[in-house]
Amino acid sequence: MKEYNLKKICAKEALKQIKPNSIIGLGGGSTIAYLVQYINEENINVKVVTPSIKTKALCFNNGLEVLHTSLIDEIDIAFDGCDEVDENLNAIKSGGGIHTKEKLIASMSKEYILLIDDSKYVNTLTNKYPIVLEIIEDSLSYVQKEVKKLGGNPETRSSIAKDGYTITEGGNLLIDVTFEDIQDAYGLEKNLKSICGVIDTSLFIDKVTKVLITGKDGTRIISKNK
Ligand code: 5RP
Taking Cα atoms as reference points, which of 91, 118, 103 lies closest to residue 205? Predict the structure, then answer.
């Protein structure tokens, strides 16, 4: 029986979008890890910016030059994974806890492309994943109170690997907020971002320009203007 590694196939397809000598963004996750490998194998000359420490290390190990994001104000094209993306190309990127840096790369990029297998493509965003808020520590109780007013159930992220809360690279906390459903992703994003203390949310609204969706029948591309 033929074996399918959808993430590998998707990463290979993504290679076709990269122009030599460009600055590219590479997010986090296993599909991006395959893409790093392929860029090295194909010897494509690019410079990389990344929100992910893991991807940065992988780039170094694959001989790719990584630039400091703070020195760059525009990126030609960026690739990332996600937890879920809908027909309007709005996405949830909650798992990694690095959404603030990922969203910055998305905003800086002329093209921001998600690489997914078809299980992640939905009609409208669901409540399968929490919406994550990166917040300043002092705002913890206040943000929890305000989130409850919006119908959310907040839980401060922690890990069994360390006592206490998970601290982001920016020295902030993460709150996982579950909602019964997400009827108005645009409104929700606006309301959550307007809470004082919230740095950014894992809802990516109007950021994604393309999605490469790989399934057993191949890869299709869905596009949207930024
Ligand atoms: C986490 C993300 C990651 O980019 C995503 O989970 C990576 O997925 P995969 O490992 O399937 O490429 O958005 O919030």
Answer: 91
Q: Is 42 helix (H, G, I), strand (E, B) or coil?
A: coil
What is the band of 3 on the pLDDT scale with cuts at 50, 70, 90? Answer: low
Which pLDDT tens digit goes with each residue over 44-91?
A: 999 999 999 999 999 999 999 999 999 999 999 999 999 999 999 999
Using DSSP's 3-state secondary structure scheme, residue 161 falls into coil
Q: And the tokens for 223?
A: 């596009």
Closest residue by CA, ligand 1 atom 12? 31
Residues 94-125: pLDDT tens digits?
999 999 999 999 999 999 999 999 999 999 99
Q: How far is the CA of 124 from the centre of ligand 1 (A)?
A: 18
Task: Kindly name the residue from 102, 111, 134, 189 that is annotated as catalytic.
Answer: 102
Distance between Cα 115 and ligand 1 center (Å): 9
Catalytic, 3? Answer no
Alpha-carbon distances, residue 130 vs 54, 83, 125, 165, 169 (angstroms): 23, 10, 11, 17, 20
The enclosing H or E element of 10 equals helix 6-15
Return the closest-CA partner of residue 222 out of 34, 36, 86: 86
